[in-house]
Specification:
Blueprint lengths: L2 E4 L5 H4 L4 E3 L3 E5 L7 E5 L5 E7 L5 E8 L7 H13 L12 E6 L8 E6 L2 E6 L2 H5 L1 H10 L4 E5 L4 H4 L8 E6 L6 E5 L2 E5 L14 H8 L6 E5 L5 H8 L4 E6 L2 H16 L7 E5 L2 H11 L3 E6 L11 H18 E11 L6 H15 L3 E8 L17 E7 L8
Helix pairs in contact: 2-4, 6-7, 9-10, 10-11
The site of S-adenosyl-L-homocysteine (SAH) has 19 residues, from α7 and α9.
């Protein structure tokens, strides 16, 4: 097997079971491993520390698949990793009707660069690293063995370029038949239609499942503005929680069209209808417009896309977060609730809280933190891989009078 030798002293992170080996840690390579192929990782003295997937193009040269020397990764091993990841989600997560669940969450499930989401038994995979692509057939086989109705590829992600991977045939059916145009999943008592072909990521934001329920619980009787609504997510949770009315705001008309269908399903399913509107607009501009019009709300949700991909983009991202949070705080009525999120991995929860604090100073409002939110339980974070914690949120409640101490 090809070998990668680390510089002296650079074995620490592998010994601590961190899955990434950066280019600067590599002293030399013995052999010419193929893209995504398995290499033995050795310390400077030649001692084998484990095995990982090779990627010459990426700054992350090796992603670990196995630590220690007990198992040399092969197809059987990868299938076992997938099966173990599924088993952590319940006895047979692919068989439960209408379940939407992340089955494999990359590094934190021991499968670097591999994401698998399932919607009513249909699997959607995102293969974002060379090793993930290399083991594609084994991953698909494991999913079929576990009962997948079919496996659809949504590996149309920028990360593939950094990995030197082919970016042409990244979407389409990998196994089984064509998935339905719309797949229905159930979350609490809410039904969502998911478009796995054209939707964002694999089609749906499963990571906000827990937060949607937390936010919905504060919605009763409130006029809600759901910013960055996508297919309705938080707005549906608020309507199910007896909100007075819900306005959904998003740049994507396709997402709003699906949101409308999801609200129809909710109200058809027995939840008392409340007035709902859908506005296709840029949140940054629309919040300013509402400020100028003197509009106000009892509850605002801010769930923007990733503003920062890397640490280098963090300060620019911070300005974006502060801007929308400040505007939203000003639009809130006394006693209003702001549910605000960041899915930028480079943004720490502490920094996000600081940004919100500064926004509140500028808005001249006092808030209490009534909940911290994080990604749903099927998006676990390996204790050895803090980078896996990317989603954070705060639910804030405003003072009854502006600038009144709480
Ligand atoms: N809250 C949603 C997920 C939001 S994803 C849920 O629970 O399912 C982020 C959304 O923001 C996407 O739908 C995207 O279309 C939208 N978006 C991105 N930039 C935007 C902008 N400047 N103004 C309005 N919407 C935007």
């Amino acid at each position: 097997m090809d070998k990668v030798f680390l510089r002296a002293g650079r074995e620490r992170s592998v010994e601590r079971r961190h899955p990434w080996i950066f280019s600067g840690a590599v002293e030399r390579v013995e052999g010419t491993p193929p893209l995504g192929g398995t290499v033995a990782v050795c310390d400077a003295k030649g001692r084998t520390l484990g095995y990982g997937s090779w990627s010459l193009a990426s700054q992350i040269r090796v992603r670990m698949l196995a630590f220690g020397t007990d198992r040399v990764p092969d197809g059987v091993y990868v299938r076992e990793l997938v099966a173990a990841s599924l088993a952590r989600r319940g006895a047979s997560p692919l068989v439960e009707p209408h379940r939407g669940v992340r089955l494999v969450h990359g590094e934190s499930d021991g499968l670097p660069g591999v994401v698998v989401d399932a919607y009513d038994g249909w699997c959607v995979v995102q293969l974002a690293s060379a090793g993930a692509e290399y083991w594609k057939d084994e991953i698909v086989a494991a999913l079929l063995t576990a009962g997948a109705k079919g496996v659809y590829n949504r590996s149309d992600v920028d990360a593939r370029r950094r990995e030197g991977l082919d970016e042409t045939e990244t979407t389409g059916v990998l196994a089984g038949g064509e998935p339905p145009e719309r797949i229905e999943i159930h979350e609490e008592d809410i039904r969502f239609l998911v478009d796995v072909r054209h939707g964002h990521k694999t089609g749906f934001y499963l990571d906000q499942r827990a937060a949607r329920a937390q936010v919905g619980a504060f919605a009763a009787g409130r006029e809600v503005l759901n910013c960055f609504s996508y297919t309705g997510g938080f707005g549906l949770a608020c309507a199910a929680g007896a909100a007075k009315c819900v306005e959904n705001l998003d740049l994507s008309q396709a997402a709003l069209d699906l949101a409308r269908q999801n609200f129809d399903l909710l109200f058809g399913g027995g939840v008392a209808p409340c007035p709902v509107s859908f506005v296709c607009a840029d949140v940054f501009k629309q919040l300013r417009l509402y400020r100028d019009q003197g509009r106000s709300f009892d509850m605002i949700v801010l769930d923007p896309p990733k503003f920062a991909e890397t640490k280098a983009q963090l300060m620019r991202a911070a300005r974006g977060y502060k801007d929308i949070n400040l505007l939203a705080m000003k639009l809130l009525r006394p006693g209003g609730v702001l549910a605000t999120f960041s899915c930028s991995g480079a943004m720490t929860p502490e920094f996000f809280e600081t940004i919100c604090r500064e926004a509140a100073w500028d808005a001249k409002r006092d808030f209490q933190i009534i909940a911290h939110t994080q990604q749903a339980v099927d998006h676990p974070v390996s204790l050895n891989f803090p980078e896996g914690a990317y989603l954070k949120g705060l639910i804030l409640r405003g003072a009854v009078a502006p600038e009144q101490a709480i």
